[in-house]
Amino acid sequence: MVPSPPLCLTTRQTSLWIPTEYSSPYTTSAARVQASSFCTAWGARSWIGSSSLPFSPGDHHVVAFDLRCHGRSGDGPWSWADALGDVGVVAEHLQLVNPAIAGHSLGGMLAVMWGGDHPDSRGVVNLDGHGRKRPDQYVGLDPMDARQRQEQIDAVVQQSLNSLVGPLKAAQVDALLAQQRALAARIGVADAVLVEAAQRSFLTQAGDTRIRPEVRGLGK
After folding, report:
1. What is the DSSP string of 27-95?
2. How many separate domains does the chain show?
3. What is the pTM of this model?
4. Is the same domain home to 103 and 84?
């Protein structure tokens, strides 16, 4: 499965420049191999994923990468097929044979879909990547009540997303980084890990700072 259009992807191991008609000036070289499984991780941002997985470097070769429209990888049309194609292209380029896929949230959903397309895969790890249940599937909740709660959550999520549309004010950037530091303290992760992951989502041009991926309408 080939991504459409092909683009530049940034991995933790290397800057993966796939020869294409499309490239992004925001794709830069990444750091190093940290730890033979393949990882698309943690909100689809590679930096935090490879820093958080409990894999032994002696047992596993972990490669984490930024999905399209995330971190320092290029922009492009978004679809599940495109995202899965990106995983396949990175695996092929780095000669990862039959890799296991691990991911969190969006990455977790991609891991499950990869497993469905590759039944001989060594394994998939889905951390909190899930779809919405039908209102009648929530044990102990009346379906109408469940639907109303879903609508309430939708409103909260949309309000949060709307606040991030367009250029961010300095106070908004500071608040987002403060949230990451607080989360790091709560879950016992070095705050530099989460802060760096968040900063990889910021794109500054002509003095304006925006967050990637573009969040306009994502909650709808």
Report:
1. ----------EEE--TTT-HHHHHHH----TTT--EEEBPPTTSTTSPP----HHHHHHHHHHHHHHTT
2. 2
3. 0.62
4. yes
